[in-house]
Every structure is written in structure tokens, then in C-alpha cells.
């Protein structure tokens, strides 16, 4: 809602993906979970790709969380993540396992969880 | 309850995170979306910078926020880890027609929306309610209680002013207060549970 906080990012968004505007895979949602796959990053990896692997070194993040931490638009992280997945450096999974997508119990678990947080 | 981790390490998802779900916190600028998210989020609310599309820039209504002339908008979000591996994300969603493409992207897969309304400027919420009706996303309305909010309106008057369906939950909350914000979210989730299962998308 506000302007940029804390100065300009090092790499402008339009350069962070090497000029690629669309991700090579279209299924990455804001809440898709990204996890580093393990193999060491090759030296020729673009800086923004390395930065994405860097923030995932401590554990898994959603696409939108990685975007916020890297101060890149969600669209740019989608492109970067898709490239890293293609290179076998990154794993992604959907926000909800397919089996749970229509689980009528899910809403009830959300309600129970929220109620338990009340003081 | 809202803790403020100083490093990014606290942001990483716990290994137990299994079902990631989201609820939109929608409303006009300055209605208290970020305040509500901040009051219940376990992480310091983060934000992404989103580009506005060309088409949306044509209906440029910046009532009361005339200093905002940037072509990006920041979308705040927070996170609540619940038992059983459920992680609930709250996305502050600007509810103006010019953010339509952004809205559709954020709303994809959402459980529903909590629409925050400022009773001192109800007309500022007409856009967001229009978007809600068009998108078909189920929602509840929460009036954010500002100290100088008018108190002489009856529920029936407010419901009529917003043209709400009789079944749409309407509550009052204090977005600064965690318990009050949780109650507003619960009003929405109970509404989602109570809906006719055949309506579920």
C-alpha cells in the first residue's frame, strides 16, 4: 500500500529474470511451496537465481514469501523458480495436497485453530 | 501474539506445514487491512510490490491518497500456523476496480474474504463489494471500529447501505486487537462452513 521501503533493490525486476517475462511452467501459485533440491548451484547461474536459492537455504518458503524477502515482484519469482525447477535445483509443491483440496474438514480445522489462538 | 522475528530465518515454513490456505482481507486504502493482519500474524507482515496493468490505470481514483502516484502497489500479507499442519495466509487486498488483474491473481484458490469497512466512509467500500459479488468469492463484512466511528446507525441501516445479502455475516471489530480480529475471521470461516455444500467451488 505504501511506496518502496528501504531503498532500491540491487537488481531491477525486469533484469532479474534475464529478460524472460513468462515462466516455463504455469502452475506456480502464490502459495506454492519452494524447497531447494540440494545440488550445489552451478557457477553460471544468474545472480537472481542464486539469491532465490540463498533465501531457501534455511528452509522452504512460499513463492510470495520468497518474493517479499528478495523484494522482487511475484511474477519475477515465478519465472526464476520455474527456471530453477527445470535445472533440477528446486522442488515445488501445490499449497494443498490434491487429496485435501475438497476436504470438508479443512474449514473446520481452520476454525478450531483460530479459536484456539484466542486469549 | 504477533511476534516480530528479527531475521529471515523465522520466516521459513515449519516442516509440518501441510495445508496452506488463504483468506483475503479486502478493503479500500486506510481501512485497517495491514493493522488487522499485523495483529494476528505470527511473522512480521511482509509485502510484495505488484505492478499495475495498463488497462487498470485508466480508472484512477485516488480519493484521499493523492500523493500515491507510483505504478506499483504493495500487497501486505501475514501468516498464522494452526494445529494439524494448516497454515493460514492473510492477504491485504486493495479493492479497487483498477486492481482487477491483481485481485484475480491473489484471490485464486482463496477460501473467502473478510471485507473491512470504515463506517465513516461506507461509499469507499462499494468497489470492493462489487468485486466480491463478481468474483463469487464468499465473504463476511467487518466494520473496523475507529474511535470516531458513528454509532447511531443500526445494523439494518448498515446492511441496507452496503446492499448486503441477508446471509452475509456482518460484524464489528477492532483491527488493532488480536482477539477481535480473530473473531471477525471466525465469523467468515463459520459462514464458509455453514454454506450449502453444493455452492462450494
What is the strand tally of chain B? 7
CATH superfamily of chain B, by name, is: P-loop containing nucleotide triphosphate hydrolases
What is the CATH level 1 assignment of chain B?
A: Alpha Beta
Q: Helix proportion of residues of chain B, in percent?
A: 25-40%
The helix tally of chain A amounts to 5
What is the arithmetic mean of pLDDT of chain A? 85
Radius of gyration of CA atoms of chain A, rounded to a whole number: 17 Å
SSE-based structural type of chain A? mainly alpha
Number of domains of chain B: 1
- Oligomeric nature of the chains: heterodimer
Mean residue pLDDT of chain B: 85
Note the beta-strand portion of chain B. Answer: 15-25%
Organism (chain B): Streptomyces pseudovenezuelae
Keywords (chain B): GTP-binding, Hydrolase, Nucleotide-binding, Receptor
Family (chain B): Belongs to the GPN-loop GTPase family.
Protein name (chain B): Signal recognition particle receptor subunit beta
Description:
The complex is a heterodimer of chains A (119) and B (201). Chain A has 119 residues and is mainly α. Helix content of chain A is 39%, strand content 8%. Chain A has helices at residues 13-16, 47-55, 63-70, 74-86, 105-117, and strands at 33-36, 61-62, 90-93. A three-stranded antiparallel sheet of chain A has the order 2-1-3. The two termini of chain A are 30 Å apart. By secondary structure, chain B is an alpha/beta fold. Chain B has a seven-stranded mixed sheet, with helices on both faces. Chain B is globular. Classes of the chains: A mainly alpha (119), B alpha/beta (201). Chains A and B meet through strand 2, helix 3 and helix 5 of A and strand 1, helix 1, strand 2, strand 3 and strand 4 of B. Chain B: Belongs to the GPN-loop GTPase family. Chain B: It holds the Pfam family ATP_bind_1. Chain B: Keywords: GTP-binding, Hydrolase, Nucleotide-binding, Receptor. Chain B: This is Signal recognition particle receptor subunit beta. Chain B: It comes from Streptomyces pseudovenezuelae.
